[in-house]
Structures are given as C-alpha cells and as structure tokens.
Amino acid sequence: MTTLVVLGGADGSVGVYQRARELGYRTICVDIRPSAPGVLYADEFVQLSVRAPELIASTLAGRDDIVGVLCPASDVGLPALAWLTRHWNLPAPLPDLAMRASVDKSVFRELCAELDLPGYRAVSGAPDDDLVKRARELRFPALVKPVDSSGSRGVVACSGPGVLRSAFAESVAFSPEGKLVVEEYLTGMHLTVEVLVRHGRVAFHAVTERTITPPPYFVTTTHLVPAELPSEVDDELVRMLERICERLDYPDGPLTLDAVLGRDARLYLVELGARMGGNGLAELIESCYGVDIMAATMATAVGEEPVLAPREPVPTMVQVFGADRAGRLAEICGLGEVRAHPSVVDVQMFAEEGTFVRAYEQAGYKLGYAVLRAATTDELRASAEAVRGALKFRLDDVAQAVPGP
Length: 405
Description:
It is a single chain. The chain is 28% helix and 29% strand. The chain has twelve helices and 20 strands. The chain starts with a strand and ends with a strand. This is ATP-grasp domain-containing protein.
C-alpha cells in the first residue's frame, strides 16, 4: 500500500484525489476544515492546519506507507511540504529557496532582478510610512498584494498615491506575515504557465491565455490553450524557466507561474509556485495535449519517471463559474444541458443548492468550472458562450446568468 499526503482540500485539489485513486494510491487529506471539498475524495482525513508540519508528522508517526507529499492549487502548504519531504527523507525534497520564492512574492521579484529577467518596478515591506514613501515613486495604476497569499486574495487596485494607505489596510488583512508588495500594473496578455521540470530542464510546459475580471478583483474567469505566443517568446520563456530552476536548485517537480506578455512584446514573469496550478488546469492540459500532469507530478514526488508524450494541441478552455453577489443558492438551472453539450469534456461543481455562496472575488469562491474542447478556437469560444448562456444560478429567488469574462 502506497499513500500520498495531500496538503489542503480546497476545490482545486479535488482532481488530484480522484486521479491518485485511479493510479492506485491511497490519499490522506490534511486540512483544518472538515467541510473542505477534498475531504470527500480522500481515503483518510487529518484535521490539522497545513501550516503545522511538526503536528502532521507527529500524527502520522510510525507510518511506513507514505511515499510522497503534494500541495496542489495553493502555496500555503509549501513550507510544510518542504519540511515533511526532508523529515520523511522522500525522493523529491523541496529546496528552501524554491519554497520561499513561492510563498513570498518579494523574494521572487528579487530573484528575477538578480537574473536580469524582464522586470517592472515593485517595492515591499510592512504597511508603514516607509512603504508609502517608496510606493509613491512607482508608476500608477499599481497593485497592492499580500506577499504570502494566492488565488487573488487581498489583491487591491490602487489608482494613485492618495489611496495607498486604504489599499494597504484592505490588503494586509490577507497576509499572515503582515507584509505587502506594491507593483506597477502590467498591461498586455495575461498568461499562466504550467511546467514539469526534470533534472533541471523543462520537460513539458503549457501556456494558457487567461481572462480576468476587471478591477478591483482580477480573478480568473477563463484559461485558453494553446496561447498564441510567438515562437521566439516561447523559446525565451523556456530559457528563463531553466535559469530560474538552476538558481532555485530545483531539479524535479511542477511549477506554476503567472506572466504577462506586455505590449512591448516582452514576457514578464509575475509570480511562481513550486506546485501544480488549480482552476482545472491539469484537466485542461490533458484535454489539449494528452499530458497527464497530475500523474507526472505524482511520479516525480515518489521518485519515478513521469510519462510525458504530448500530442498536437487541440483548442481547449476552462470556463469558471461564479456569482456576482453573495446569497443563498436556491437552484442551479441548465446543468444537464451543459453536461450534454458536445464541446464539454468535464464539469465540476463546488456549490450545492441551499448553501450560502459568495461573490466571485477570490479564486476560492468559484461555484465550479467546465472544460471545453473544439476543433477551432472560434468554435471553442462559441461553445463557451453557449455554456454561459445555458447555466444559471438562482440566488434568493432571483435568476442570474453566470458572469462572463
């Protein structure tokens, strides 16, 4: 019997539990919340914070079946992953710098500057007078972010220097460390990059074109692959990634990055996580390229060789479903029609009728997502529009369509 410890049970991790079972692994879900979606799919549940690796190790002491640790869809558990992989002497320990660059956005910005990668101005620190002074030197609009959050939590748009203090007060509430980064806002094509690293080289990567909500929340609504990147930009991306892996001493495992292809045709890396991405990205990649990134990540975690045999890409999209306000979810309408649509590969729903749902202001507040695939990008976009039109959520006796990108 081989068991994977999965740090976190949020909606973005559900596919990992399902795929692990299909591959013959048992799973232990570690999460402080018994109601976390992943708990229903795990073989065992340990009710502890993913920020407490010593307690996790103590609770699981004496187990000889644990072969790997995963931390999908969130950076919060990466310090525990780094500690546990060393404590249990597992095959793929997470290097300290890779962990710190994942959980502290200012560390990654400093790394990019050190490697002389395309950059933009940013300042970081505690939300005090000194940070206000340094942030005033930036070009506005700017974004204020907690250095240690993900999923768009605490990201605040800042139109000018005069609203810095109020933006700080709103954003720092989402930072366990009480530290912020203020960065110039990049305009251009928003991208997500999913990577599998082997022996310090990029063994596979996929780039999605990402649609986000307008200010003030900047939450993802769609991912489209393959992104229309010029070949020279994609080649440069691979070189950048391999330089980063060398500096991080990161030989094997997954990476997820946010990036922007600027209007100046330069590629800017924004954030990095030494983990798989959420929002259905693994399902998206498998539907588009035929690469099972979840199975590949599990293989590297347990010290085995991953199978990576990409095919010619087929246009594929993840469409995220969210509500535009909070309320009780009285009814989900049109779900059967959506599941039956010929372009729909998979549908995942994370909200049930009768439960309270929040406005889609953070990634964790999504109601679900669909994966769609079509022969052409135009056909794919038309299918996504049909799905958005068919699926409706009735909140507190008011029918509303799923917001579009």
